[in-house]
Fold this sequence. Notes:
By secondary structure, this protein is mainly β.
Amino acid sequence: MLFAYGCRSSKKMVSEERSVMRLSGEEHLAAVIANTPDFTALSSRLKLTLPTKKGEFSVNGTLKIKRDERIQISLLIPVIRTEAARIEITPERILAIDRMNKRYVDVPVEDIKQLLGTDVDYPMLQSLFTNDIFLPGKYHLTKKDYASFVALPVDENAVLLSKKTRKRTYAFTASNETNRLTESVIASSSAAHRLRWQYNNFGPVGDTVFPMEMTIFLEGGGESSKTTLTLSRLSVDGMELKATSIPAKYEKIGLMDLMRMIENL
């Protein structure tokens, strides 16, 4: 399932030359958050590479984000480039539309949390897509949150910022050179299952910097899968993102039906 902020205009960039030994955990967190990509809306071409039973499958599409409101992923039919499927995530729901077979899934986020036994929510999903540090249920981290993170040096080039709860560990690896987030990890308390979301190939977009490649690993039960999002032709701000309408003739199916279809890929 591929399924913080404050007023960034007033933030001062922390010097990228300060070493891990000179920054406390709170200072590290503040430095990384200050370097979080700064935009209200983002649009990008997308190449999505998914794992299947036969290997990997790649499909092109678009990724659009309106911060704090909506995330849309549109997947296109090769050559003719009409939409084959769409995923839309909002704070209230997750919508998946299969235009090829004229069916859709429309599920409240709360139902997914109960089904999977996780604390996944919109702020968390948005943060994973936007290269941001997060905690469940929070759109904005405060200085009180900073103090709850532990900072440990990984090596001379990186620091690990982590917070443990009764059920999960949230861990974030950041570069000491750039104070940019390079990996987010959500792990069960037993570490038997975890999601690793890696960020690579940072490039300038408008007045901000954004990772052009994201690699997602799902690990657990002795198995691992990898999904890659490769972005191109990014633009930020100045974009409206309207809610997706569902055609009247489309058939509504349940979340379990969708999960069974995914398992059979």
